[in-house]
Q: What sequence folds into this?
């Protein structure tokens, strides 16, 4: 086995400079008495398309910025496999995602507390959201101002989206101008992480202002291969820079995994920490048998319903004409406005698949455009897309290593639509979408259902249609979940059970997925996790004194 050369010794070694890792590096290095190392497998966030909002079209499935993962063939998707983008660059997924600022619902976090995770109820986590926030409209009881994480309104509107909002109101879904006040029911334009039409990623917000701190080292193109474990303590991280020699960063205090819901379980399993049967299959020595690592994968599956329209402008016509493209580029260059500032989805809508629900269990991402899938050209006809996802799926998937080779991509099985309940919600979501589209506000544009098609009517037909048009909305969580039961991986202070010197602080620790986009909750977890680490360090120092 290759022997690693020593790179250096640090108090904290953070693996992954994504949404969570950038927050952690900022907060932990604020203490001048500690030495912090941040390891990122990807490169710097200096690619122009990271910062132009519409650039997500060029950062996803691009090896410069994306791990380019893929799921296995999914039975619930009628045998299809999906591209599974994950950020591989400073800023991680915040450098390639949809920029939507969404906390979820108060009930999400209260449920975490009800599962036994003390300190994670809504009232506990809200201060961590507001502390890092810089809300364009200023601070109030639900928002913060002056923090690093910029939240603004979008710099555009579309007649077709306004009509969808009116149609939703006509069938009883209220209008809202803020999805982040505890119950996100309603329809309105999403708030985004942008500053005056430019993407505001975690690296720009949290790393760039403090990159010159003498106690912080940031390494890019440094892929973690495994953790070093001595006895019952994790003592360091073995990594390799751009195919070079194996190096070891020693941790006097703690190693913090912030590699995400796919990367963190993969690194743990490569290190001999995970389900014993999985490790044995790949001839990896079991350091600690932790059955829950890589299990409990949850994601939001979106059904992309597409409607042809007439008598109203959509992006399809403009983007398919040279003069339209030139006009969009000029509008952005001069004013930082127009379609190039667009998040992948502009209008949001949270609704109930049936009235018996206490809170909304569906989220819409509505777009004034249509295409077969991201990365392909827009359709040649005017159309809009109403994507709708089940916010609280019952289905659970897995992430496991493919081999003992750290360069081999993991096996990702989301297991979409695996339960009768999830199939029922999918069918109900399609029916609700048809009700909205049939409302008077949209009927004037003569919408014609292009996908899945009006021929799908029965529950079985609609479940099959959901498998045909369903795709990930890029929200994997839960694979190192917080909990005290046998499948729990970390405790409520995010320490991996049974091993000292190791925490997992990223989306993988969520016991259940939040009711909305997952980037802001992941950053909240990092904000709260950093506070716990610093508090534990102070307590240890006080005892030693």
A:
């Amino acid at each position: 086995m290759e022997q690693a050369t020593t790179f250096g010794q640090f108090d904290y070694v953070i693996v992954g400079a994504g949404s969570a890792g950038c927050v952690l590096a900022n907060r932990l290095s604020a203490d001048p008495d500690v030495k912090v190392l941040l390891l990122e497998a990807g490169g710097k966030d200096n690619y122009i398309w990271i910062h132009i909002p519409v650039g997500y079209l060029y950062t996803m499935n691009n090896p410069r910025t994306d791990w380019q993962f893929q799921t296995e063939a999914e039975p619930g998707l009628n045998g299809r496999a999906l591209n599974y983008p994950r950020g591989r660059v400073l800023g991680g997924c915040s450098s390639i995602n949809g920029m939507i600022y969404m906390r979820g619902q108060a009930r999400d976090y209260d449920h975490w507390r009800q599962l036994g995770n003390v300190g994670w109820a809504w009232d506990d986590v809200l201060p961590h959201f507001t502390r890092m926030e810089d809300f364009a409209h200023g601070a109030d009881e639900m928002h913060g101002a002056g923090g690093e994480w910029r939240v603004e309104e979008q710099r555009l509107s579309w007649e077709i989206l306004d009509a969808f909002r009116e149609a939703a109101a006509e069938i009883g879904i209220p209008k809202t101008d803020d999805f982040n006040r505890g119950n996100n029911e309603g329809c309105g334009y999403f708030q985004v992480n942008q500053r005056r039409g430019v993407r505001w990623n975690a690296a720009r917000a949290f790393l760039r202002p403090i990159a010159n701190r003498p106690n912080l080292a940031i390494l890019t193109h440094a892929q973690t291969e495994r953790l070093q474990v001595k006895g019952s303590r994790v003592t360091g991280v073995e990594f390799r820079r751009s195919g070079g020699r194996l190096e070891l960063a020693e941790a006097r205090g703690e190693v913090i995994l912030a590699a995400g819901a796919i990367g963190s379980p993969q690194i743990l399993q490569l290190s001999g920490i995970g389900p014993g049967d999985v490790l044995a299959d790949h001839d990896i020595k079991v350091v600690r048998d932790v059955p829950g690592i890589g299990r409990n994968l949850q994601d939001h599956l979106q059904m992309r319903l597409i409607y042809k329209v007439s008598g109203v402008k959509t992006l399809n016509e403009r983007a398919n004409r040279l003069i339209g493209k030139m006009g969009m580029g000029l509008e952005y260059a001069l004013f930082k406005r127009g379609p190039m500032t667009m998040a992948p989805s502009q209008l949001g809508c949270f609704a109930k698949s049936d009235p018996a629900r206490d809170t909304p269990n569906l989220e819409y991402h509505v777009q004034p455009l249509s295409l077969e899938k991201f990365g392909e050209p827009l359709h040649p006809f005017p159309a809009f897309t109403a994507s709708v996802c089940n916010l609280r799926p019952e289905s659970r998937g897995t992430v496991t290593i493919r081999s003992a080779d750290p360069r081999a991509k993991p096996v990702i099985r989301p297991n979409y639509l695996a339960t009768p309940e999830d199939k029922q919600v999918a069918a109900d979501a399609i029916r609700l979408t048809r009700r909205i589209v049939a409302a008077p506000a949209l009927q004037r544009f003569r919408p014609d259902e292009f996908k899945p098609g009006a021929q799908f009517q029965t529950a079985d037909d609609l479940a099959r249609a959901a498998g045909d048009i369903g795709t990930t909305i890029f929200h994997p969580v839960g694979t190192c979940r917080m909990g005290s039961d046998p499948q729990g991986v970390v405790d409520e202070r995010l320490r991996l059970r049974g091993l000292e010197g190791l925490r997992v602080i990223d989306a993988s620790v969520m016991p259940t997925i939040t009711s909305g986009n997952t980037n802001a909750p992941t950053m909240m977890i990092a904000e709260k996790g950093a506070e716990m680490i610093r508090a534990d360090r102070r307590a240890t120092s006080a005892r030693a004194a």
